[in-house]
Amino acid sequence: MRIIRADRVLTGRRGEVIANGEVLIDKGKIVSVGPRGSAGAADDVLDLPGHTVLPGMIDAHVHLGFDDKVDPVTRRSPESDHHLLLRMAENARKLVSAGVTTARDLGARGFLDLALRDAIEEGLAVGPHLVAATRPITITGGHCWYMGGEADDEPAIRRVARENLRAGADCLKVMASGGLMTPSAPPSWVPQYDTGQLRVVVEEAAARGKGVAAHAHAHASIRSCVEAGVTTIEHCSFLTASGHRFDPELADLVARSGTYVCPTVHGATERIRQVYGEKMLQDWLAGIAGMREAGVRQIAGTDAGFAVGGIPNATDGYVGGLEVFATVGYGNAEIIEMATVLAADACGVGEVAGSLDPGKRADLVAVAGDPLSRLADLRNLALVLVSGRSVGQGAVDTVTPSVG
Ligand SMILES: [Zn+2]
What are the structural domain ranges in the chain? Predict the structure, then answer.
């Protein structure tokens, strides 16, 4: 039994703050959450004056198999799977050291994400709990085809979906539109699949109680994703051949369907201004602001690992992405909810993670300061617990020793 006390305990749900709160943890799970003294006695009490305790953050869109710098397509000598798996383990360590205790990996080759997910659960590697999509389903030569999930018609789509699920995928990823960084793929504003084809992916996932994450930049693809009933739309950037063009009616359709959107904002957003120009950046942000106004349920996710146009998107830049949400009008309490409760629900792990509630995994962070008034305080990590286990990393070590 262990008690963690702090000036503030945030449950994750918007506006729920327990002043002078404490969390009681036992065997990797949360036993109780309440005001100081409510948990009774425990042999191990960690008092953190000046700190805030909140649920561990969730990155709903990462690629641990990318190295955040090098274009994986044009890389001269492809890495062996063995080498790549070690790189993924290092990326997972970085991610959790930034306070991310659950991450959804939306595309990896060779089922390496499953190997890493299971190794982390066994304690062989340090990282967040992983929700793994394995090979993204894409057309032949389509966006991210090199991860091995090519399928052009409905029987082929069904087969790849079933193979991924047989291997142990936690969700399915489908490339509804083209994308950047794959020279042979259609451009981002051109659909790869129609509604009927996307529906096949949704059916196969739903038959096993799983969700679908769909990569979609194009207007027509965003509409198809809603019609097919995917769980989350990734990027949702309203891209056309001449740039981002937000469509309020389409945003309204997304909002009314309840489909989650992960707009993949990250800490390197300022670099977009340098590489693509001010107009491109502002038009993209206008879409995220427009979706907020339309009432679209947006969640935090960074596309970490994916470098676009030479822009590094570091696996530890999570909080930078949250700060982008603040620039388009979201309040800090809303953003914390998007990074915890809502992201957990969207990733299919809302029953076990995303909020500080009895019975859930003891995935939590403690930060110096108060992120409700200053979002940047989320960088002041004093403690990161993944299922109650302390992640000894940098500043984290100095506050509490690692517990086994
Ligand atoms: Zn991605």
Answer: 2-55+354-399, 57-346
CA-based R_g, the chain, Å: 20
pLDDT in 10s for each residue of the chain, 404 residues: 999 999 999 999 998 999 999 999 999 999 999 999 999 888 899 999 999 999 999 999 999 987 655 555 555 457 889 999 999 999 999 999 999 999 999 999 999 999 999 999 999 999 999 999 999 999 999 999 999 999 999 999 999 999 999 999 999 999 999 987 788 899 999 999 999 999 999 999 999 999 999 999 999 999 999 999 999 999 999 999 999 999 999 999 999 999 999 999 987 777 788 888 999 999 999 999 999 999 999 999 999 877 666 666 666 679 999 999 999 999 999 999 999 999 999 999 999 999 999 999 999 999 999 999 999 999 999 999 999 999 865 434 333 333 32
Cα separation, 368 vs 380, whole angstroms:
5
CB within 8 Å of 349: residues ≥ 6 apart: 102, 129, 131
CA 389 / ligand 1 centre spacing (Å): 29
Task: Tell me, in angstroms, the distance from the centre of ligand 1 to residue 403's CA.
Answer: 34
> Residue 238 C-alpha to ligand 1 middle, in angstroms?
16
Domain covering 57-346 assigned CATH 1.20.1250.20 in the classification = no
pTM summary value: 0.94
| Amino acid at site 153 | D
Q: 390: CA distance to ligand 1 center in Å?
A: 29
Under CATH, which architecture does the 2-55+354-399 domain have?
Roll (2.30)
User: With the CA atoms of 387, 391, 396 and 397 taken in that order, what torsion angle do they form, in degrees rounded to the nearest 10?
Assistant: 120
Distance of CA 302 from the midpoint of ligand 1 (Å)? 8
* CB burial of residue 47 (10 Å; 0-12, 13-18, 19+): exposed
